[in-house]
Each structure stands twice: as structure tokens, then as C-alpha cells.
């Protein structure tokens, strides 16, 4: 049900790089496929330094439905991904946890979502201690 095209609408995070470079955010599109019926193949397209880049990731299914594991290179480079809330046709809110650090991301089937969905995203973010000053929204152009 998560398969298809998504747009990264917003992210709430304590990431210092994001805070320092939030003025340079670019529209970001994501395509999700499920090639084997379990693993999510996530292809992220974004502009960086005037060029389009594709980042490919594989979200491995974890013990429970709606939970995934994103493995990075090196020791301790795993990210737990949890689907917090979705209606599959318009939005998805995902939690990303690496160690003690947590981020919340809002994806939309279009680059703009309703105010009600934004409010849900902000509620999820506040629930894990991420206030509005740690929330960044992506442009809808590009």
C-alpha cells in the first residue's frame, strides 16, 4: 500500500546540518516499490548543487507490521523506521530512529497536503519532543 510516488513534505529533526542548511531545501520526490512483496525499495530524487541525484535504499521488514530496518554501512549504522500514520491515498507519517535520535517525516501523494494533515504531523512531532522550531517544510516546486 505504500508503493508509488510520494513527495517529502516536511521533516522534524534535531539534525544540526538540517538546521544550518534549511534555507537550501529542495523539492524531493520518492518512489516506493515492493519488488518481493516484503522489502520496500525506496528511490529518492532530489536536487543537490544544481544536479538531480537518486538515493536508493532498502527498508527491510522488521518483527511487526509497519516496522522496517534501514541498514547503513559500518557498525551501528541501522535506522529503525516505523509507519506512524497513513491513509495511503494522501499522506504517510514515518518515524526514523537511530540510537537515541529520532526524526519524523511527512510524505504526501502530492507536494501539498491539507492543513489537517500538517497538524497531524506536528502532533506526532511534538509527541516525541520535536517542537515547531525543529520542523522544516520542503518547497513545492522543482
Automatic annotation (TrEMBL):
<dbReference type="Pfam" id="PF00061">
    <property type="entry name" value="Lipocalin"/>
</dbReference>
<protein>
    <submittedName>
        <fullName>CO8G protein</fullName>
    </submittedName>
</protein>
<dbReference type="InterPro" id="IPR000566">
    <property type="entry name" value="Lipocln_cytosolic_FA-bd_dom"/>
</dbReference>
<dbReference type="GO" id="GO:0072562">
    <property type="term" value="C:blood microparticle"/>
</dbReference>
<keyword id="KW-0964">Secreted</keyword>
<dbReference type="InterPro" id="IPR012674">
    <property type="entry name" value="Calycin"/>
</dbReference>
<dbReference type="GO" id="GO:0070062">
    <property type="term" value="C:extracellular exosome"/>
</dbReference>
<dbReference type="GO" id="GO:0005579">
    <property type="term" value="C:membrane attack complex"/>
</dbReference>
<dbReference type="InterPro" id="IPR002968">
    <property type="entry name" value="A1-microglobln"/>
</dbReference>
<keyword id="KW-0732">Signal</keyword>
<dbReference type="InterPro" id="IPR043245">
    <property type="entry name" value="C8G"/>
</dbReference>
<feature type="domain" description="Lipocalin/cytosolic fatty-acid binding">
    <location>
        <begin position="3"/>
        <end position="133"/>
    </location>
</feature>
<dbReference type="GO" id="GO:0001848">
    <property type="term" value="F:complement binding"/>
</dbReference>
<keyword id="KW-1015">Disulfide bond</keyword>
<dbReference type="GO" id="GO:0006956">
    <property type="term" value="P:complement activation"/>
</dbReference>
Amino acid at each position: 500500500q505504500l508503493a508509488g510516488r510520494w513527495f517529502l513534505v516536511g521533516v522534524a529533526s534535531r539534525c544540526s546540518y538540517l538546521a544550518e542548511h534549511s534555507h537550501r531545501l529542495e523539492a524531493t520526490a520518492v518512489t516506493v516499490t515492493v519488488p518481493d512483496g516484503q522489502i520496500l525499495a525506496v528511490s529518492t530524487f532530489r536536487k543537490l548543487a544544481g544536479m538531480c541525484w537518486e538515493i536508493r535504499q532498502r527498508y527491510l521488514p522488521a518483527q511487526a507490521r509497519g516496522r522496517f530496518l534501514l541498514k547503513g554501512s559500518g557498525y551501528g549504522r541501522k535506522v529503525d523506521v516505523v509507519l506512524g500514520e497513513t491513509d495511503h491515498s494522501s499522506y504517510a507519517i514515518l518515524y526514523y530512529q537511530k540510537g537515541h535520535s529520532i526524526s519524523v517525516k511527512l510524505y504526501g501523494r502530492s507536494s501539498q497536503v491539507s492543513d489537517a494533515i500538517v497538524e497531524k504531523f506536528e502532533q506526532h512531532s511534538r509527541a516525541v519532543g520535536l517542537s515547531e522550531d525543529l520542523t522544516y517544510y520542503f518547497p513545492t516546486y522543482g
